[in-house]
């Protein structure tokens, strides 16, 4: 298979997930709360706020935004936000949700690699990327170039992502931490075949095959520096917003999952902030 075949399979999978994640029956992402409460924020954005800082008045783009819950949350913090995603179904659900909540958010369909074909260059004060985005990208250098191209001089990238050491762990081992998969970026992706998504849903997926690539922390940092960004902060966290290692984690009141017996042994996610130099 070619890289385009891998990405097409991933797109079909996310098209399949989107309506399940956007269900109005309390399953999926529980999107009703954003409609019922105009001040509601996603747990991800709540976690990000201390390092995200005051974004009121900023022009922001949320890359790989999926159904827009984090995008809408950023808008509720005062930013003018555009969400971008390659999945047509995700963008459709995001637009529907924003219409139902009344939040003024624009959503654009595009592969993140072609973001500069549909969005203005050097026009954004903030590029935001959330957890579970980078693993779908074959080459981290290509992504870093897009981020640099979108940011205005002095603009900031805010990235929170699952730690590459977590992506290298075998989640099927439920009794201890076990490294199994590549930590460093590989040409060929890992192939998965799974009819379930990562949140409660009522229907199994039909487009079950996905392809993922890991990227080491060093590869990510170096790619951003080489694209003209200056790293301002790199904070590793002992939590992640889903049960990444079933049977070995405890859910906290903040919606974050942490290791139960092996707390502190490994980082599970990280936040990176970088600024585009003039």
TrEMBL record:
GO terms for biological process: methylation. InterPro entries: Methyltransf_12, SAM-dependent_MTases_sf. Residues 62-157 form the Methyltransferase type domain. Signal peptide: none annotated. Keywords: Methyltransferase, Transferase. GO terms for molecular function: methyltransferase activity. Transmembrane segments: none annotated. Gene3D superfamilies: Vaccinia Virus protein VP39. This is Methyltransferase family protein. It comes from Leucobacter komagatae.
């Amino acid at each position: 298979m070619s890289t385009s075949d891998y990405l097409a399979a991933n797109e079909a999978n996310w098209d399949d997930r989107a309506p399940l994640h956007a269900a109005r029956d309390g399953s999926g992402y529980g999107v009703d709360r954003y409609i019922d409460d105009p001040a509601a924020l996603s747990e991800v954005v709540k976690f990000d706020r201390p390092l995200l800082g005051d974004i009121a008045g900023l022009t922001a783009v949320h890359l790989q935004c999926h159904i827009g819950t984090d995008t809408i949350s950023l808008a509720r913090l005062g930013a003018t936000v555009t969400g971008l995603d390659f999945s047509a179904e995700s963008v459709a659900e995001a637009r529907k949700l924003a219409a139902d909540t009344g939040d003024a958010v624009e959503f654009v369909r595009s592969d993140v690699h072609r973001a500069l074909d549909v969005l203005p260059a050097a026009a954004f004060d903030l590029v935001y990327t959330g957890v579970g985005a980078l693993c779908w990208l074959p080459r981290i250098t290509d992504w870093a170039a897009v981020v640099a191209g979108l940011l205005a001089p002095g603009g900031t990238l805010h990235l929170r992502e699952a730690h590459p050491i977590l992506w290298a762990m075998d989640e099927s081992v439920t009794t201890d931490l076990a490294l199994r998969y590549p930590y460093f970026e590989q040409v060929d992706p890992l192939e998965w075949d799974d009819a379930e998504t990562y949140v409660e849903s009522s229907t199994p997926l039909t487009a079950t095959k996905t392809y993922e690539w890991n990227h080491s922390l060093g590869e990510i940092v170096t790619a951003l520096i080489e694209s003209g960004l200056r790293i301002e902060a790199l904070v590793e966290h002992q939590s992640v917003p889903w049960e990444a290692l079933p049977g070995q984690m405890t859910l906290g009141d903040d919606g974050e999952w942490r290791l139960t017996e092996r707390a502190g042994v490994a980082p599970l996610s990280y936040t990176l902030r970088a600024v585009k130099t003039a």
